[in-house]
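Aim 2 progress update. The chain analyzed this quarter is reproduced below.
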Amino acid sequence: MIDYRVVSNFNWSLFLACLGISILGVVIIYSANHGQSEDFLRGLYIKQIYWIGCGLVAMFIAVALDYRWLSRHAYLIYFFALLALAYVLAYGVTVSGSRRWIHIGAISIQVSEFAKVSLVIALAKYFEEGKMSGRYTLKDLFVPAVMTAALGGLIVIQPDLGTAIMIFFVFMVFIAAIEMKTATVIKLFSSILLLAPTIWFFLKDYQKSRLLTLFNPELDPLGSGYHSIQSKIAIGSGGLWGKGILTGTQSRLNFLPEKHTDFIFAVFAEETGFLGVTIVLSLFLFVILKGLNIAFRARDRFGFFLSLGLISSITFYIIFNVGMTVGLFPITGIPLPFLSYGGSSLVANFFAVGLLLNVEMRKVIIE
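Predicted structure tokens:
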């Protein structure tokens, strides 16, 4: 039987904000590819509408399922995510040199998008069962660090460095949220600073080039710096009011690569200008603040850590994607939540929002 106390606590504003951003995404995807063949164009924006529908189904499943059920099966969910990522490495589909997708019938699924949600669930479970008093030491962080490294390592091998970096930052949010001894914090961050330079030796050549051209794209204007240069041109040319929907020159003339996925923010800025950017960033900020509000008002530890991890993941994706398009961060192929084209990302993010809504709704019946 439906508990109407739960239903009446549904956060419509958060839901409508995410849905509104997704609808804007469909419009910009259509506009960015306007002028392409009709079959190609329909294959993008019609599919995105279809994925929004799938995302809404996933969201309502997440809402209907008591989130505390996830706590009881957290490690099993994490284990299946590891198996799925291992399957991708063995039998996945390779696109542009990266093996990130599996095919189920006519559907392509990027497993890493769902795996990051499974990690948040598992880490939330671990810290839920953690110390109720006292402070964590490095020894206490060994298990969650191994869990994060195992899942992140499988994603790096694909290779998908951007998603792996996001997973690391989400792990650091969990670390910041728990009580730690001052000496432990110093040791932890000292170790990270010492080990960080060694990452350079594990990067592929194209990843090194993107880092080298981060602050000076003109070093390789037709190669690794091309994306950044064209993105900043598109954003700057939007001015105050924008060039208008369907009239963005950088996208229509195909100067801007990955225009409906990684660089959709640049297309949006060119066509809607500063005014449009202000609106969409305000919507993103609203989603982030709502998510944090849900986390800090959660009635149990699992709900708190679950909500914090999910909204942190969405937040980092927004920050890094927008920062990437304006030249603050290297090009990493990170999609913009709800706005970029892509089924796996859209469904995973709607599922995450459904869990956030779930935590808020069910706090009214937790004793």
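The chain has 15 helices and three strands. Residues 264-296 form the longest helix (33 residues). These observations will guide the mutagenesis experiments scheduled for the next reporting period.
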